[in-house]
Amino acid sequence: MDQYEVPVLWSPDTRLHDPRNEVWVGVPTIGTETAARVDAILDALDGPGFRLVEVPPAIDRPALDAVHDAGLLEFLGTAAERWAAGPYADLVGQERVVPYLFPTPAMTAGLPARPAVAVHADAGRFGYDTMTLVGPGTFAAALAAADCAAAAAHLVSSGAEQLAYALSRPPGHHATPAGYGGSCYLNNAAVAAEALRTGGAQRVGIVDLDAHQGNGTAAIFYARSDVRYGSVHVDPGAGWFPHVVGYAEETGTGDGVGATRNLPLAEGTGDGPWLEAVANLTEWVSGCDALVVSLGVDAAADDPESPLLVTADGYRDAGRLLGGLGLPAVVVQEGGYHLPSLGGLVAAYLDGHAGAGG
Ligand code: SP5
Ligand code: ZN
After folding, report:
1. What ligand has the least distance to the C-alpha of 131?
2. Buried b (16+ CB within 10 A) or exposed e, 62-76
3. Ligand 1 atom closest to residue 174's alpha carbon, by position in its atom list
4. Beta 204-208 vs 27-30: how paired, if at all?
5. How many other C-beta atoms can be found within 10 angstroms of the C-beta atom of residue 36?
6. At CA 32, angle to CA 26 and CA 34, rounded to 5?
7. pTM
8. Which end of the chain is more exposed for a tag (fewer CB within 10 A), N or C?
9. Which residues, in sequence order, are bridge partners of residue 27?
């Protein structure tokens, strides 16, 4: 039997975002979510079993508008220009949008927070951390990443493919309806889920394998019963991003009660218990009509951003579990920061998924 060829939806525009620095505890550190990640993954997937497909721009704006508030899209679309028009480069050499204050209830104390005229003060209305900077190419890259996810969903919805992989970058699962953070600007996996719904799937299951809980995706679907969100991740209660959410007690609200499942794991967890959690989520989404996998590979042992110890074989087995469902599936790239092993981990997952007949 011929090996199934997995379509790899990608766009050169995803390289346009250059974070340069991430401001961590007040100090600029070297950004880890770099454009080189795209090329590391392309290199690993440029061969038998995969087919590269370049995605044209702006293919599903309705899905994006369904996922995000207009205010966030407007801010991200104009922030870099506003910043460049300000004094920041000359005054302090800062060429990226960095929030200066956060208008949380601690500041506003019940008063309405007005949009700030100064962009450094306005940024905290949408940006929720200091790690996730906006530069000249950020919005174009984020749109291209969302386009890759939408294109993958369209391929699957049309019946042309049973499995499609979106090489989305920057990643998306920390982007909330009205907020960006955690190296994420637009929620690519949510765009894929929304596009699958519009394309005819009554119930979509999202399984998030990134080392960090996808608080953005969880928030977007928290009150909905038509999209299940399940995540296996390092325990935020042990001091890991996103720190304040991602706990097992969060199971949905309103119509969405029971449609969110968080499976936090202890630092140092390896393949065995991680795969048990993946199997739990696999069974949980088995009644859905379509599947979205948020494929972060930062749970890998070599990754600098998490303390989980999953191997490439672990990712391959996760692919076998989820592919074994036989559901139409869109796999969307999330995190993964160890350039030497990144591409191989993605290939291992996709190989397992496709090989399972998915
Ligand atoms: C999509 C994704 O994987 N986002 C990662 C979000 C977590 N980032 C938290 C980074 C914490 C600081 N890491 C060390 C900083 C030194 N550069
Ligand atoms: Zn992550």
Report:
1. 1
2. ebbebbbeeebbebb
3. 1
4. unpaired
5. 11
6. 125
7. 0.98
8. N
9. 24
